[in-house]
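Researcher: Structure prediction, please.
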Amino acid sequence: MADVLDVNVGFPGVDDVKLLPETVITIQDMFDIPLCLDSPNPKAIEAALYSQQRVKS
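Model: Predicted structure follows.
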């Protein structure tokens, strides 16, 4: 079993600022594993981190 799951939604034409947080929420609903948010877009990382805080609250 993995110790950390790398999450990357990068694909040409994908809105990663929208998709990365949605993906993080879906994964966290299904699995209890630390995530490594992987994106060259700092706004996507920021949005995903914010979504993680909302899930944990």
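Model: The chain has a mean pLDDT of 90.
Researcher: Thanks, that helps.
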